[in-house]
Design goal:
2 copies of one chain form a homodimer. Chain A is an alpha/beta fold and 351 residues long. Chain A contains 11 helices and 17 strands. The interface between A and B is medium-sized, with 27 and 27 residues.
Chain lengths: 351, 351
């Protein structure tokens, strides 16, 4: 295992779409949403454990999730759990942790991942990440993971790859032509029909020097802010200093702040059973289903004349469902929600 | 109030059709199934309280429901709560309590009612019962309450009244031509189209001497069994003696044992908003509904795009329902059931 490999798990999301299973008190990444005995953040750490030393694992999350993170990831060093005082999207998060990592190891090579995604082909996934890390260890490239689309999804950004231009060092790594915002349905259908459009999964690989340089060039103010705190980092004054600085940071994604502006951006296509589990529908699609297409997450669920439903309940709670087609039935902490899968975008209006 | 008036509440049912709200541990009569703050057995007692002295109220129930009965009906004298050791339908129940009443007051005049029915026009109901009791106080008639049918129900027995032959003493009380078993749909439609067919609500009025005589004639063995225990009744030996006798009694309804055989049988037609609340559908029909036909029983239920549903949950539990039409959603004690109203006869298979 390369001792320069670092992992950054971004765990600041509040998972409002999975209500009532998720809540601001316990968002999706801290839930065993698949009913497999492990939470999504635990699955995320497991996925990278063979290729990143545990002392190089970093988690950036909201300060209200400090206890949950420590409980669920007891092997991650406490000092590697960075707490954000407020939500500022992914750019400040990555800038902060990158300066922390640079201070500890200027040769670090980093993979950044959301905490709440699912990958079913973990071997293929790790192979893709390792290839990307080997590449960024030797170059000043920024590499994104590009997921082979399986449907004309309008909820994701797309990466347009230049498949004619693969890296001379890594044949599976291609130059990025452009990042495309979430498309409309017709555009998404067009993208899916072409081999060079890939989903942007928000999983990035770069050396610490590359990403710090990119911040210096494209987000000079933000980068300077954190650089000025370099001496304060890893001291008792760090929290106060970060809290003050964070409040002044732009609320901006790393995609917009860096990726869409940088020059040496590459993509590693991957077909690894990835899902962002961003919707109940995607959770249903990724869960084990019975012969009638029902995903039943819970230990005591009985269904009759029921098809294409997802039933999600806390352990051992008894649920009997008759005669539903295409519904979400979710029950937790004294709250029961029943909603058509096709109407799940309205869930945020329910709580 | 006539001091000879007695009330018998039959409360032995196990309410299996209202699962999961009702259970063998707490059947329907002991539940606030309407969400009005009173259980059905409490509503039943209230309905009769103006016409029967409290010391003349009797409850016959299963021995496992003794505590529930005492808790819910604290004003009913403890010695008037008779406990059945096993379920033997209504004939042994009525025979037992009739001998108990006869021993206390040979002039008693009795109304017998199930514990778990609903009446919305309580004034009209009491007027009908009082007329019937005035009639049975002066005659040896057996009177049944006959509910004016509102639909071609196939789940009830019917009473065919001879509307040309009203009693000379009470113009609203008619001789019964015949009792009709639960009809098929075509027969039920025929019944509803004729003015002289009424639902048999299982509510009976008779003097204690009349019903004891009827048991002596039509159920001699059963009647003898209880008569032999006459000296034992109201002694510490009563429970043991009754337990032994009950096990030997036929499992038979009073309709079949007495009503269909007796001679002087009359009916008092009544249109008093009666329901046996025998199904979720009837509960929905009797509950307050919103403008979309939803009966929402619970304090924190929100519905969207939802019509003709009944949602029943324990107090303050939060429920959100989107996009259902014609369903039961019932949740209690860690059990959630969702079922089409049209399929509710299958509920007994679910538990």
């Amino acid at each position: 295992m390369n001792q320069n490999n670092h992992l950054v798990i971004m765990a600041g999301g509040i998972g409002s779409r999975f209500w009532p299973m998720s809540s601001e008190e316990r968002p999706k990444q801290f839930l065993d949403i698949l009913g497999c005995g492990r939470t999504l953040i635990q699955l995320t750490l497991e996925r990278f454990a063979p290729i990143v030393p545990m002392e190089n694992v970093w988690v950036v999350t909201g300060e209200q999730y400090a206890t949950l993170t420590r409980e669920q990831l007891p092997d991650v060093p406490q000092e590697n759990i960075l707490l954000e005082p407020c939500r500022r999207n992914t750019a400040p998060c990555i800038c902060y942790v990158s300066w922390k990592i640079k201070k500890r190891n200027p040769q670090a090579n980093i993979v950044v991942t959301p905490a709440d995604h699912l990958v079913t082909d973990t071997d293929g996934f790790r192979q893709a990440i390792e290839e990307a890390m080997e590449f960024t260890a030797e170059t000043d490239a920024i590499v994104t993971l590009g997921i082979k689309p399986s449907r004309p999804e309008t909820g994701y950004g797309y990466i347009k790859a230049d498949l004619a231009y693969s890296s001379s060092r890594k044949k599976n790594i291609y130059r990025v032509d452009a990042f495309k915002e979430k498309p409309d349905a017709a555009t998404a259908a067009q993208y899916v029909s072409e081999p060079n459009y890939l989903w942007n999964a928000g999983i990035f690989v770069w050396s610490v020097s590359t990403i710090i340089n990119a911040f210096r060039v494209y987000q000079a103010k933000m980068s300077n802010g954190f650089e000025k705190l370099l001496k304060t980092l890893d001291t008792p004054q760090e929290t106060d200093a970060i809290n003050k600085l964070y409040a002044t940071c732009d609320n901006i994604s790393v995609d917009y702040a860096i990726m869409e502006r940088a020059e040496e951006v590459f993509v590693r296509p991957a077909d690894v059973g990835w899902s962002d589990l961003g919707t109940w529908g995607s959770l249903q699609a990724q869960s084990q289903r019975d012969e009638h297409g029902n995903a039943l997450i819970g230990n005591n669920i009985a269904v009759y004349d029921t098809t294409n439903c997802i039933v999600h309940t806390t352990e051992n709670r008894r649920v009997v469902v008759q005669g539903l087609d295409g519904y979400i039935v979710a029950e937790k902490d004294g709250i029961l929600m029943i909603c058509r899968l096709s109407e799940e975008q309205r869930i945020k209006l329910f709580h």
